[in-house]
């Protein structure tokens, strides 16, 4: 992927056509997550999706267009998995529950293939500007959920009002992505657990401490 051309307008699909297109994108997403974008050919996608070459090229002009659709699908999948934990985030306890869910997910897969979005970022961000923009938008959306939760903590008095929630959210996201990379390499959820624990400790350090009775007397 090297071009930065604008994405063509979406074709109006019949219900059957939408199902076929979705099957193609799902097959491509699975292949690209397991084998990388470079390691996935259009012929691989045709075989995995059970479609013909003419069907594939009816919905996607080229591999670049298919990759864009895969990024969007993977972004939706990732956010669907995290939204239940982050939409109502408003406390350290909620942040730890999200951390526990993440670690369980990584542990079940022993880190295999890494983050769906992170793996695409590492392969495409320096090769395709349209892909980089889409992936970056996904990260920013993800961080916005974390920042909103941290802001709710501020509103409840559980986080210093002077804390920069945007910076904290970016730090948590960096810990997540770095933890996933190490978990992928080590086939262990331990790096993810450690990375998120350290990020959450940074948040804990900004929790206002109640004044002691002796301090109040002075």
Automatic annotation (TrEMBL):
InterPro entries: Homeodomain-like_sf, HTH_TetR, Tet_transcr_reg_TetR-rel_C_sf, TetR_C. The lineage of its organism: Bacteria, Bacillati, Actinomycetota, Actinomycetes, Pseudonocardiales. It holds the Pfam family TetR_C_13. It comes from Pseudonocardia alaniniphila. This is TetR/AcrR family transcriptional regulator. Keywords: DNA-binding, Transcription, Transcription regulation. Residues 18-78 form the HTH tetR-type domain. Residues 41-60 bind DNA.
């Amino acid at each position: 992927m090297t071009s930065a051309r604008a994405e063509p307008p979406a074709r109006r699909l019949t219900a059957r056509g939408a199902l076929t297109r979705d099957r193609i994108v799902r097959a491509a997403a699975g292949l690209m997550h397991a084998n990388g974008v470079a390691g996935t050919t259009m012929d691989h996608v045709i075989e995995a999706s059970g479609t013909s070459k003419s069907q594939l090229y009816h919905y996607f002009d080229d591999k670049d267009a298919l990759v864009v659709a895969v990024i969007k699908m993977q972004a939706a999948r990732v956010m669907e998995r995290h939204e239940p934990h982050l939409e109502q985030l408003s406390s350290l306890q909620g942040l730890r529950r999200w951390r526990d869910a993440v670690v369980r997910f990584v542990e079940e897969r022993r880190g295999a293939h890494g983050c769906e979005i992170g793996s695409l970022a590492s392969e495409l961000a320096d090769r395709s500007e349209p892909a980089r923009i889409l992936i970056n938008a996904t990260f920013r959306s993800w961080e916005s959920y974390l920042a909103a939760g941290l802001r709710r903590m501020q509103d409840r008095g559980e986080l210093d009002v002077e804390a920069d929630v945007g910076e904290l959210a970016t730090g948590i996201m960096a810990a997540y992505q770095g933890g996933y990379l190490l978990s992928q390499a080590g086939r262990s959820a331990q790096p993810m657990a450690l990375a998120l624990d350290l990020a959450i400790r940074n948040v804990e350090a900004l929790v206002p401490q109640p004044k002691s009775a002796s301090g109040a007397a002075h």
